[in-house]
UniProtKB/TrEMBL annotation:
InterPro entries: 6PGDH_NADP-bd (IPR006115), NAD(P)-bd_dom_sf (IPR036291). Pfam families: NAD_binding_2 (PF03446). Signal peptide: none annotated. Transmembrane segments: none annotated. This is 6-phosphogluconate dehydrogenase NADP-binding domain-containing protein. Residues 2-101 form the 6-phosphogluconate dehydrogenase NADP-binding domain. One of its GO terms (molecular function) is NADP binding.
């Protein structure tokens, strides 16, 4: 995922460094000040843009590293370019902050970063700090997937549970699909057939459909199923375990 940072506060450098270490493609820094753009671009080892529209258009994720008091003004400038299908993430160290929407099919987040500078005022390593995200939009799940799969210590605040429940259901659906896709592989490797896989997948699908947004989706005995798939190759088992881990994390995050 390509990332641009818009703004002039150190928090943007800290967050950009974290994303870059995790494998994100940090394209550029933009600031109203040429000196700040260059300074921060050097700190992150990326380009310095002097054109806000270019910074927005060339990236999928736009980090808004601006103070809360100028956030709305910055978003009004960006709105003039009519961006579409972008993820905007405003950074803040405050306990609460408004997420500014400019409409369209864009996705909006506020990231709460507890500490972004050390005692000397230098850029701080925030890789171990819990980062809290609150937002809404069509690409909510995509952003969650990117952060989680790259190992970012992200926690999502979903007061209505709308997005969390939808994400949990989507992950469950993927898991069921994975089980179904390997059913034939199982039947080819063992003489006992693939009945348990089909039963397990059917049970998972049924619970996902009838309960949807409830924790019953996760009541399927996944660990028991894992103990019965020793006949599968290591790669398949790894994929299953990874998917189960995601589902377990989701169940704790949104339903407990």
């Amino acid at each position: 995922m390509k990332v641009s940072v818009v703004g002039d506060i150190k928090m943007g450098v800290c967050f950009a460094r974290l994303l870059k270490r995790k494998g994100f493609d940090v394209v550029a820094f933009y600031s109203d000040s040429i000196e700040t753009s260059v300074k921060y671009a050097v700190a992150v080892s990326c380009k310095a843009y002097l054109d806000l529209e270019r910074a927005v258009s060339e990236s999928e994720l736009i980090i808004l590293a601006v103070n809360d008091r100028v956030l709305k003004r910055t978003m009004r400038k960006i709105a003039a370019y009519k961006p579409s299908g972008k993820i905007f993430c405003a950074l803040t160290a405050a306990e609460t902050s408004d997420t500014v929407s400019i409409g369209g099919n864009n996705t909006y987040f506020t990231a709460f970063i507890p500490k972004y500078a050390d005692d000397n005022g230098d850029y701080s390593d925030i890789s171990e700090a819990p980062l809290f995200f609150e937002g809404f939009g069509e690409l909510y799940h995509d952003f969650y997937d990117e952060l989680y799969m790259r190992g970012v210590n992200a926690k999502f605040i979903d007061k209505t549970q709308k997005y969390g429940c939808a994400l949990a259901a989507a992950l469950t659906s993927d898991f069921v699909g994975m089980l179904c896709s390997i059913a034939c592989d199982v039947s080819q490797k063992v003489n006992t057939g693939d009945g348990w896989v089909k039963d397990f997948a059917a049970e998972s699908a049924y619970k996902a459909l009838v309960s949807g947004t409830r924790s019953e989706v996760f009541n399927v005995n996944m660990k028991k199923a894992l103990s019965e798939i020793s006949c599968l190759d290591a790669d398949t088992v790894h994929k299953l375990k990874s998917t189960i881990k995601v589902l377990e994390v989701m169940s704790v995050s949104y339903f407990n």
